[in-house]
Amino acid sequence: MKNYDNFLILGGDKRYAYMAQELYNNGYSVALSGFDNCEGFEEIKRENIKVLSDYKNIVLPAPITRDMLTLNAPLSKFKIDLNEIYSLLTAENFVFCGKAGSEILDMLDKRAGGKFIYFSDFEYTSKNAELTALAVEKILNNENKDLKEYNCLITGYGFTGKALSKKLKDKFRSITVCARRDEVLKKISSDGFDALKLSCLKEHISYYDIVINTVPSVIINADILDFVKESVFIVDIASAPFGVDFGYAQEKNIRAEKALGLPGKYFPEKAGKILAKTILKKI
């Protein structure tokens, strides 16, 4: 075992357990914390968070938190306080982490010796987007409807929006991609999709049967929701603060769902291996 480069994985969904297994298979000393309700992975040691200082590399999940107070650890029996993590970090630790607000990232910079946000890696972000697109396809297939009769709108044309557009291109009667900037709209058109400027969304939203949001900002607000089809299905795969006014959607009985952590939910082993490969590039 390479005990000079050991890993403690704190929280996250099952993909992080698979990531731990892949790191272990590559000869590293690895432990999991916050995985009380995760079966299997018997070769991987389970640790209490209080031993954090015994480990050089600390892996935090994406997102790091969903409430700004506790670690995103859905497989843990107990809540893990972010302040406890901060207090245990030292300059000897290197942190691998997902996206987070500036307040959290600033605190990690103050406490740890260094950090790497794995979403800053192009290959990781691209492959993660591809898995997300595959997962969305599964969600839509579960609708048991002939999607060829439906018009689909995708909001946003980042990594995930591009992967979704490409993956779903032949599934619907039409696919339109909505974006804010003119240069992005030109790219959407050149890639073979109908482009819709965000400022024109209100006038056109009633045309679409399925709306998939990738923008982590509330662009599908009450003003937009007032004009959607009664039968519309909205899938929001963006991170917080999300892209849909879910409170208003519920009031209006509009079907709108948050679809979070899709790679970890639908393809945890593949997602874990991709993440392990990304981390190993930084060792």
SSE arrangement:
Blueprint: E1 2-10, H1 14-25, E2 28-33, E3 45-46, E4 57-59, H2 82-88, E5 94-97, H3 102-111, E6 114-117, H4 122-141, E7 151-155, H5 159-168, E8 174-179, H6 182-190, E9 194-197, H7 201-204, E10 210-213, H8 222-225, E11 233-236, H9 246-251, E12 255-258, H10 262-266, H11 268-280
Parallel strand pairs: 1-2, 1-4, 2-3, 4-5, 5-6, 7-8, 7-10, 8-9, 10-11, 11-12
Summarize the structure in words.
The protein is α/β, with parallel strands linked by helices and 283 residues long. The protein folds into 2 domains: 2-120, Rossmann fold, CATH 3.40.50; 132-264, 3-Layer(aba) Sandwich (Rossmann fold). The chain is built from 11 helices and 12 strands. The strands form 2 sheets. Strands 3-2-1-4-5-6 form a 6-stranded parallel beta sheet, covered by helices on one side. A 6-stranded parallel beta sheet has the order 9-8-7-10-11-12. Helix 1 packs across helix 11 (268-280), helix 4 (122-141) packs across helix 5 (159-168) and helix 4 packs antiparallel against helix 11. The model has no long low-confidence stretch (mean pLDDT 95).
